[in-house]
Amino acid sequence: MTKISILGCGWLGLPLAKALIGNGFSVKGSTTSSEKIPALQKATINPYLIEIGENVLHGEIDNFLEQSQVLIINIPPKLRGNSPEKFVSKIENILPFIEKSGIKKVLFVSSTSVFSDECEFVTEDTIPNTDTESGKQLLECEKILQGNPHFETTILRFGGLIGEDRHPIYFLAGRTNIENPEAPVNLIHLEDCIGIILKIIHGNWWGETFNAVAPFHPSREVYYSQKAKEYNLEPPIFTHSKPSKGKTILSDKLENVLKYQFIKGSL
To answer: Which terminus of the chain is more solvent-facing, meaning fewer CB atoms within 10 Å of its CB: N or C?
Structure first.
C-alpha cells in the first residue's frame, strides 16, 4: 500500500486525505491545531501535530515522513497582516527532513499568482513574472523543490479555490468601485483539485508543472453579478474608470497530457 504524507490538512488537505484513503492509500496528515486531531482520527488519517516556522520546527516530523513514498506540501504562505512570514525559509527548514526520510516524490501546491496580470494568456511555458510578494515566494519555493536532486517534485498551480462553503462572491458582495470588471476569472473547484491530485499520483506524473484552472473564463463583472443573484446577495459594483487587466490561465496541459476531464468545467 502506498503511504502518503500530507503537510497541511486544512480546507483542501482534509477532503484530499479522505479521497486518497478511499482510493486505497494510507495517509498521514499534519495540522497545527490540537483541536483538529479528533477530526483527522475520525477520518482514519494518522494525525500529527506539526508546526513549521522560519527557524524552528515543532512536532514529530521524522515519524510523519517515515515510510511514506509521497509528500504533499499544502501549506499556503501567510503574508497578510502585520507579521508576514518568510515562506521560503519555512520550506528550506523542512528540506533536510525530506531528504533524510527517503521520500522520492513531492507534490507542491502552488498558485497561479506566480504570473502577473500583465500576461494575456498563460501556459506552463509562460515565464513567471509575478509582481506580488506571495507569488515571488511561491516561485522561489518551486525552484528550490524542483532543483533538489534527492526527490522529484511536481508543481501544481491552482487558481482561485472555490467550494460549497468558499466563494469570492461572499467577499465581493455589496462592495463598490471594484476594478478590472473585464478581467477573466480563473477559478477551480475543490472537487477538481482533488481529482487532479489523484490523477497525478495514479499516473506517476512527477517532475512536472501543471496549471490548474477550470476552462471557464467569463469577465469578473458578468460572473460575480450572476453569482450574487444566485446566492441572493447584494451585487458588487464595478468601476470602468480604468482599463481592465487580467490574465487567462490555460489548463490545456492537464487536459491534453494528463488526460484530465474537469468535473466542474463551468462554475
So the answer is: N
Residue type, 70: V
Which residues lie below 8 Å from residue 143, measured CB to CB, with a gap of 6+?
A: none
Q: What angle do CA 255, 261, 264 make, to 5 degrees?
A: 120
Q: How many CB atoms lie within 10 A of CB 174?
A: 11
Q: Give this prediction's pTM.
A: 0.96
Site of grid cell 461572499: 170
Q: What is the pLDDT along the chain (267 residues), one digit of tens a residue?
A: 799 999 999 999 999 999 999 999 999 999 999 999 999 999 999 999 999 998 899 999 999 999 999 999 999 887 665 566 799 999 999 999 999 999 999 999 999 999 998 888 999 999 999 888 999 999 999 999 999 999 999 999 999 999 989 999 999 999 999 999 999 999 999 999 999 999 999 999 999 999 999 999 999 999 999 999 999 999 999 999 999 999 999 999 999 999 999 999 888
Residue found by looking up cell 497561479 in the block: 112
Q: Return d(Cα 52, Cα 38) in angstroms, integer.
A: 21
User: Does residue 198 contact residue 23 with C-beta atoms inside 8 Å?
Assistant: yes
